[in-house]
Amino acid sequence: MALVLGGVALNDFVEAGDARPAVHNPTGHTHDPGHTHDPGHTHDPAHTHDPTGNTRGTTAQADSGLGRAGETPRTGLSAAVGLPVPAAARAAERIPAVELAALEVLSTSRPPLEGEPEGHVHSLDNSITEPALPPDIQRRLDEQWALAVEVSERLGSVEAARSAGYVQAAAAVPGVGEHWIKWSLVDRAFDPAHPSMILFQQVGDTEHKRLVGLSYWVYSAAEPDGFAGPADRWHRHFGLCFENGWLTSQGIADPSECHGHWVNGSDLWMLHAWTVPDLDNTDGRFAEVNRRLCPSPMGRPDIATCDPLLS
Question: Of 69, 89, 127, 234, whose CB count within 10 A is highest?
């Protein structure tokens, strides 16, 4: 029987005997910044990328946000884990019932990870150059981007985001911001008009927060065909543990080790899209980190300060 959330049937991904393959790929996939795709943007599932954007080793190493000795400093969602869950995030009514039900489905519809999962960390070697595209592909990209920008304008305040069903899911990450998730949109195919995550940043020392970009977290057995062209940079996070919808750890292979909702993550792909005009990312609109959001100890943002140990 299909579960219906908010009028939308979720049988695509909750039915027993789901035809999706069980993906057990703990490669911590990331893109080589120099890597280019075919302009038609079709991904070969067997394609392997440069693994230098990943760290191997213990969960503690992965969660630290640090790479191997001598590597370019990195940051990522791992910078937000291992922190105490704020009291406000423990409130039972924090997550709308329909969104909590979607998280429950996501948590129980995947098997344990095989092998030792890796924590993805966002490379600070971050620049993406968009190549010239054939007119039809450029037109499709422009249409998709316009939809994403419209969503950013509509969900630009915390109040609007909450009304739409988004809840904060992690502490702020330097260079990225706070991830706010709408759980009923996770685990679906890519749709530029319906991001499952939005990114907020606190404004200075005030309590005010502003939307700084979007984040798509979508289901796909292989790297998704997202925005038209080769520039969108997708990555994954493996073995995530959420307590009342708040990220507490990642790199957890066995769901029994998570005291909350465990998310496999191996078939969920994430993309950041910097859609706010006055915060356009000088490293590219799909770069993983936005240097404009890095700490500014000398009066201007410095991407080096986005290393978790320096922020």
Answer: 234
**pLDDT of 301:** 54
Residues 6+ apart with CB under 8 A from 63: 78, 81, 82, 119, 249, 250, 251
- Which pair of structure tokens corresponds to residue 194? 């319906």
Residues 6+ positions from 28 with CB-CB distance below 8 Å: 51, 53, 54, 55, 56, 62, 118, 119, 120, 236, 238
Alpha-carbon gap, residue 37 to 235, rounded angstroms: 15
Q: What is the structure's pLDDT at 80?
A: 56
Instruction: Name the maximum alpha-carbon separation found in the chain.
Output: 58
DSSP code of 95? Answer: S
Neighbour order of strands in the sheet with 246-249: 246-249, 240-243, 261-263
Measuring CA to CA, how many Å separate 21 from each of 11, 13, 37, 111?
16, 11, 25, 11
Report the distance separating Cα 276 and Cα 153, nearest Å. Answer: 8
Low-confidence residues of the chain: pLDDT under 70: 1-83, 115-126, 297-305, 307-311
In single-letter form, the type of residue at position 297 comes to P
Q: Which two tokens stand for residue 171?
A: 């502490």
Considering the entire predicted model, what is its pTM?
Answer: 0.72
pLDDT of 13: 28
Nearest CA among 35, 263, 226, 257 for reference residue 145: 226
> 295 - beta bridge partners?
none
DSSP string covering 111-178, please?
PPPPS------EES----PPPP--HHHHHHHHHHHHHHHHHHHHT-SHHHHHHTT-EE-S--BTTTBE
48 CB contacts (<8 Å, ≥6 apart)? none
